[in-house]
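Quick one, tokens below:
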């Protein structure tokens, strides 16, 4: 087997991955390859997708990825926008206390 690194514009990576990873899992299964999408790199306009498999399988996987990108390219504004670092001060997290409340209610039967 061999490995191939494919560059995909940042804005199109989510289209290749699909909802909850279903698209990329299906792509790997149908082409019998192992596919890994790498994390974005600061100031880069593209992300890399590593494909492992036999040459014909990799060729098929690349063809399918290219088809996905061609179909969706016009829909995505700024699809080649560079990656920016996360500002930890702007990230907001929320925690649901419903499970804690439920546990308290069950223990205290209130």
């Amino acid at each position: 087997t061999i490995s191939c690194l494919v560059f995909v514009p940042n804005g199109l990576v989510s289209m290749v991955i699909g909802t909850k990873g279903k698209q990329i899992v299906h792509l790997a299964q149908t082409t019998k390859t192992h596919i890994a999408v790498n994390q974005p790199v600061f100031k880069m306009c593209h992300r890399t997708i590593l494909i492992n498999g036999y040459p014909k399988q990799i060729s098929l996987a690349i063809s399918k990825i290219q088809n996905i990108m061609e179909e969706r390219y016009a829909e995505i504004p700024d699809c080649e926008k560079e990656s920016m670092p996360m500002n930890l001060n702007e990230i907001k997290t929320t925690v649901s206390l419903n499970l804690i409340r439920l546990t308290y209610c069950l223990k205290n039967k209130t």
